[in-house]
Amino acid sequence: MANIVMFCILAVVILGAAILCVFTRRIMRAVTYLMFVLFGVAGIYFLLDYTYLAAAQIAVYAGGITMMFIFAIQLVSKEALQGFKGRFKGIRLAGGTLISVIGLLLMTVIYLKNHFLCAFSEAADVEVPMEQIGQALVGAGKYQYVLPFELISVFLLACIIGGIMIARKEDEK
């Protein structure tokens, strides 16, 4: 019963912080709300007793990615941030809503066509051992994630180098 209560609390925190992250006008607040979302996801991993995934979530995402966002924000000039007007216009709001509804309908059709809902209800009774999750994370075979993880790390390295190049001040002559 306590796990259900904690899950509900974490779900409310995650959803609330995600909504605030999307709708806030201040970029530093958006990053802070994103950090709360990532910590909430780590809390759900702790509830499932996946301590390795929870620690990785905190170290990689809540720590590293959030800090990268903060450094990227600090690298952007104040004039660029002040000149940004994030107003909702009627046509853009309608277009975004239309795209969201089409995406929701498409996902619903895919779920119903492939009978994913039935597969999830049967698989919910089976507990996945931590060894199998670890093998999937560090394996290089089919449906394993070490290669995508390495590609993402190279991409993040390129982002860091790009940030350093932008931050480097050049003499104007």
Report what the structure shows.
- By secondary structure, the protein is an all-alpha fold.
- α1 packs antiparallel against α2, α2 runs antiparallel to α3 and α3 packs parallel to α8.
- The mean pLDDT is 80.
Count of helical regions: 8
Name the structural class.
mainly alpha
Whole-number radius of gyration?
20 Å
Task: Tell me the fraction of residues in β-strands, as a range.
Answer: under 5%
Topology as H/E string?
HHHHHHHH
How would the global form be characterised?
globular
Low-confidence parts, pLDDT < 50 over ≥5 residues?
A: none
Q: What is the arithmetic mean of pLDDT?
A: 80
Total strands: 0
Percentage of residues in helical conformation: over 70%
Query: What profile does the largest beta sheet have?
Result: none
Distance between the termini: 69 Å
Keywords:
single chain, 173 residues, globular
Short description:
The protein has helices spanning 2-23, 27-47, 51-75, 78-82, 90-114, 116-123, 130-138, 146-167. It is built from eight helices and no strands.
